[in-house]
Design a protein that fits this description.
Layout (H helix, E strand, L loop, with lengths): L1 H19 L2 H17 L1 H5 L5 H22 L18 H15 L3 H12 L4 H8 L3 H20 L8
Helix pairs in contact: 1-2, 1-4, 2-4, 6-7, 6-8, 7-8
Length: 163
């Protein structure tokens, strides 16, 4: 086998590389060709043609068989990039909502009402004033002080807001 490889290995590899277009695949073809030559040593020594011709024919047949096998199988799927889930993880927004709701419980009822009307129900200042029965200027003032109080509660400073 060593002698066979020493004599024909380079030309066999060059031929297989031309057929496959890939050096690694060509090396596999050469290896498989030499294994088949070892299994059929009797055919090589029987004197039926040249050894190199037999090896090149076997290599061509191996390449053909591999191409047919690839064509018969479904195409392999490439690795898919890791993608974020279709729905994002909403746990952070749930935690934030819980924190804000807890902080809202700690501000005065007037401030809470104004914040709920403006931010949770999406009302304008005029709509919130009408709903709460207070002038629009009062809604603006309460929202300003309510947000300050809410920030203070969330920051952990129990600062008293006078208005």
């Amino acid at each position: 086998m060593r002698t066979l490889y020493a004599e024909h290995g380079r030309s066999l590899l060059a031929y297989a590389t031309r057929l496959t277009g890939d050096r690694a695949a060509a090396e596999d073809v050469v290896q498989e060709t030499l294994v088949r030559a070892w299994k059929h040593a009797g055919d090589l020594t029987a004197g039926k043609g040249s050894v190199r011709g037999w090896l090149l024919t076997v290599a061509r047949n191996i390449v053909t068989d591999r191409a047919r096998a690839r064509a018969a199988r479904p195409a392999e799927v490439a690795d898919v990039e890791i993608r974020p889930p279709v729905e994002g993880d909403h746990s952070e927004s749930v935690v934030n909502t819980m924190i804000v709701m807890d902080a809202l419980d700690q501000v005065s009822p007037e401030h809470r009402e104004v914040l709920v009307q403006l931010y949770y129900r999406g009302r304008s200042v005029a709509e919130a004033a009408k709903e709460l029965g207070v002038p629009p200027g009062t809604v603006k003032s309460r929202s300003y002080y309510a947000l300050r109080a809410l920030r203070a509660v969330m920051a952990g400073t129990e600062a008293e807001v006078a208005r």
